[in-house]
């Protein structure tokens, strides 16, 4: 929300007063004087008028989880454990997942209460690279490298996937980097060659690599530096 809107919503200020307060530099956001009425404030912003606290700002929370296979990327599920069940945190209903993984996919998952941060991370325009370790049923041929780089046509969405980087590791294993997050994208890309993915593990999202200290099912908060990477 815009700062002037936030202030006008306060019962003690009229619109005209809001303009004056900003010009007189009496409003602070997160400790800094702000006079721009368009300045975006969020639930996490601390907003002060002189010495009076108008909004304390709720703490933003960011976690990295090593998702194990056999767990649903959802906040609730009637049958299976969910990734949120793995967190021992208060107010879990405030948290959401930034980029889902399939039931049997393991690896790096980011969880937060900051919608702005997670939107930036997951929206297709950001083209955030996601790196997966993949094992398949059949041998992965060199032609996959060219085809994945050129893109695979997905009839359902009527689109061709963005160029993806494939590094062959063994006859049936590879590392794949994709910049989108289409439904079952990796499985469908290998499906183009009728090759079934039997193991899928997300190693990294952008510059953030899954912490090797985290066993499957474990998680930890992100450091401010890690949050600021995005
Ligand atoms: N692609 C898939 O097919 N599954 C995942 O879980 C992630 C990417």
From TrEMBL:
InterPro entries (UniProt xref): PsdUridine_s_RsuA/RluB/E/F_cat, PsdUridine_synth_cat_dom_sf, PsdUridine_synth_RsuA/RluA, PsdUridine_synth_RsuA/RluB/E/F, PsdUridine_synth_RsuA/RluB_CS, RsuA_PseudoU_synthase, S4_RNA-bd, S4_RNA-bd_sf
GO terms, biological process: enzyme-directed rRNA pseudouridine synthesis
EC number from the UniProt entry: 5.4.99.-
One of the record's GO molecular function terms: 16S rRNA pseudouridine(516) synthase activity
Catalytic activity: uridine(516) in 16S rRNA = pseudouridine(516) in 16S rRNA
Residues annotated as domain RNA-binding S4: 1-58
The UniProt record lists the keyword Isomerase: yes
Keywords, alphabetical: Isomerase, RNA-binding
Its biological purpose: Responsible for synthesis of pseudouridine from uracil-516 in 16S ribosomal RNA.
NCBIfam families: pseudouridine synthase (TIGR00093)
Family under the similarity heading: Belongs to the pseudouridine synthase RsuA family.
Identification of the protein by name: Pseudouridine synthase
């Amino acid at each position: 929300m815009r700062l002037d809107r936030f202030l006008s919503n306060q019962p003690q200020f009229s619109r005209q007063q809001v303009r004056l307060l900003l010009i007189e530099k009496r409003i602070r956001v997160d400790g800094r004087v702000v006079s721009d009425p368009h300045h975006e404030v969020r639930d996490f912003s601390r907003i002060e008028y002189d010495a009076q606290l108008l909004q304390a700002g709720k703490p933003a929370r960011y976690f990295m989880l090593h998702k194990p296979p056999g767990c649903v990327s959802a906040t609730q599920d009637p049958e299976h454990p969910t990734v949120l069940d793995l967190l021992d945190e208060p107010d879990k209903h405030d948290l959401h997942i930034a980029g889902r993984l399939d039931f049997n996919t393991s690896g790096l998952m980011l969880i937060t209460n900051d919608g702005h941060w997670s939107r930036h991370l997951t929206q297709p325009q950001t083209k955030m690279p996601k790196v997966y370790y993949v094992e398949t049923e059949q041998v992965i041929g060199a032609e996959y490298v060219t085809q994945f780089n050129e893109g695979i046509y997905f009839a359902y969405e009527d689109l061709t996937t963005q160029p993806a980087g494939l590094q062959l590791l063994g006859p049936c294993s590879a590392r794949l980097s994709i910049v989108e997050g289409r439904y079952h994208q990796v499985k469908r890309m290998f499906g183009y060659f009728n090759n079934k993915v039997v193991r899928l593990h997300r190693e990294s999202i952008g510059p953030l690599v899954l912490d090797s200290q985290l066993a499957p099912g474990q998680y930890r908060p992100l450091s401010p530096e890690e949050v600021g990477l995005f």
